């Protein structure tokens, strides 16, 4: 259950020693038992999850912007309806994840404030611009494809509320990838100009998509403990390899060229060998120096500020209604009548 | 929500239950923040039923839910564990006896 109300600290302090608690926790996680909000957990486990789940939630929310950019210019009503539904899904995914993070004892306001004041991170990929319609295809195909690769193992994450949110997200995510691939298929079977547009989108999104899996395992800060705690199931490099292995044949099908001169299939291992992403670029984007970092945050802040009067009005309305409901309302119909006649 | 002291209050949390089809019971799916019950139902619809997952929604203030403590599960559920004769598989049905 996602409920914070159930997440109260025990009034009777646990008399067991922390060492013993920690050993029991490690044993439970090792035995693939799920950890739930009320269970004892090491502070570092809690912090790691709050960081990871909230970054994930922020990514979903910021991720609405690059695609939202094309809703009014989608090439047909069908494409427009699909893109609207996809962007709405991203909002929903953000909300599932915020709810999961809140079970760890943080509040929605704290999470949102951390995003708005720039102290929280989100996925580097959303700091790249969507320059053409083909970018919407490339995002669905590559970015959502990479996200699915990351997210499917998270459905088995040791923290129950996160795992359950991921199951729901993964169910919805596969439509996202397919609609992107459909756009790429249509463009790659179209005119020369359309094919060139699809190739250009692949050229620009390929490397940032590979960076989505994070730094090499040798440089990953959080890897080992997250693996032991079964928050993470596969390493960054393992997931990146999987992604390349499934995606290159799809590019071949489209008749597009992956922009990596080092790419080749190794018949012995059955895997693709590929070149190095530009890690300096990756670090720069994380530092806030990507092409769209400031634009994305400024837009989110503006949307948040523009919505302030709606939140205040809703709160004022609820406060005004509350005493009336206690005095009069029994049935829903009566309540609505009371609401209508109230000043 | 701005409170009297000028600080921000958290909007109340509501637990969301969906009935997926007529004839089935409501099941917990997650939670939403909302100022009142009406907004909670609307938010629950937007967040949890984008693909026709429900024919009915319940929202319940999270603070109204009383829950057992997982740490007490051994004592709380012990009476059921020792009464294996409550399961039909406890009984031996002689060979040749049908419809039982």
Explain what the structure shows.
The complex is a heterodimer of chains A (343) and B (100). With 343 residues, chain A is mainly α. Chain A is 65% helix and 2% strand. Chain A has 14 helices and 2 strands; from the N terminus they run ααααααααααββαααα. A two-stranded antiparallel ribbon of chain A has the order 1-2. In chain A, β1 (264-266) and β2 (271-273) form a beta hairpin. In chain A, α6 runs antiparallel to α7 (160-188) and α6 packs parallel to α8. The longest helix of chain A has 29 residues, at 160-188. Chain A is globular and about 65 Å long. Chain B is an alpha+beta fold and 100 residues long. Chain B has helices at 37-48, 73-81, and strands spanning 13-19, 27-33, 56-61. In chain B, strands 2-1-3 form a 3-stranded antiparallel beta sheet. In chain B, a hairpin with a 7-residue loop joins β1 and β2. Chain B is elongated, with a radius of gyration of 22 Å. Classes of the chains: A mainly alpha (343), B alpha+beta (100).
Labels describing this entry:
heterodimer; A: about 350 residues; mainly alpha; 14 helices; 2 strands; about 0% strand; globular; disordered C terminus; B: about 100 residues; alpha+beta; 3-stranded antiparallel beta sheet; disordered N terminus
């Amino acid at each position: 259950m996602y409920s914070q109300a159930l997440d109260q600290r025990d009034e009777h302090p646990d008399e067991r020693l922390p060492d013993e608690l920690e050993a029991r926790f490690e044993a439970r996680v090792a035995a693939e038992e799920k950890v739930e909000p009320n269970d004892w957990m090491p502070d570092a486990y809690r912090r790691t999850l709050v960081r990871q789940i909230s970054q994930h939630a922020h990514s979903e929310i910021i991720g609405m912007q690059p695609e939202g950019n094309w809703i009014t210019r989608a090439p047909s009503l069908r494409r427009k309806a699909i893109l609207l539904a996809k962007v709405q899904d991203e909002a929903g995914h953000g909300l599932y994840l915020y709810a999961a993070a809140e079970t760890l004892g943080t509040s929605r306001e704290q999470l949102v404030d951390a995003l708005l004041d720039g102290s929280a991170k989100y996925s580097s990929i959303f700091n790249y611009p969507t320059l053409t319609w083909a970018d919407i295809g490339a995002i669905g195909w590559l970015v959502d494809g990479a996200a699915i690769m990351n997210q499917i193992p998270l459905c088995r994450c040791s923290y129950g509320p996160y795992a359950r949110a991921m199951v729901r997200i993964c169910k919805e995510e596969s439509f996202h990838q397919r609609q992107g691939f459909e756009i790429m298929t249509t463009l790659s079977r179209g005119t020369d100009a359309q094919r060139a547009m699809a190739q250009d989108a692949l050229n620009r999104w390929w490397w940032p998509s590979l960076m989505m899996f994070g730094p090499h395992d040798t440089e990953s800060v959080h890897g080992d403990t997250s693996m032991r705690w079964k928050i993470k199931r596969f390493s960054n490099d393992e997931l990146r390899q999987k992604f390349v292995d499934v995606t290159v044949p799809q590019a071949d099908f489209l008749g597009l060229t992956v922009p990596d001169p080092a790419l080749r299939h190794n018949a012995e291992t059955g895997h693709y060998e590929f070149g190095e992403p530009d890690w300096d670029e990756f670090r720069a984007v994380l530092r806030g120096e990507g092409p769209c970092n400031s634009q994305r945050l400024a837009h989110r802040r503006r949307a948040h500020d523009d919505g302030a009067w709606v939140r205040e009005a809703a709160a004022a309305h609820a406060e005004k209604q509350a005493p009336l409901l206690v005095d009069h309302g029994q049935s829903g119909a009566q309540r609505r009548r009371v609401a209508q006649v109230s000043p | 929500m701005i409170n009297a002291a000028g600080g921000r209050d958290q909007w109340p949390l509501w637990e969301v239950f969906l009935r997926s089809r007529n004839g089935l019971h409501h099941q917990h799916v997650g939670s939403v923040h909302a100022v009142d019950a009406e907004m909670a139902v609307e938010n629950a619809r937007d967040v949890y039923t984008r693909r026709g997952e429900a024919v009915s929604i319940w929202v319940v203030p999270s603070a109204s839910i009383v829950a057992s403590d997982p740490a007490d599960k051994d004592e709380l559920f012990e009476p059921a564990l020792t009464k294996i004769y409550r399961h039909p598989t406890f009984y031996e049905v002689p060979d040749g006896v049908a419809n039982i």
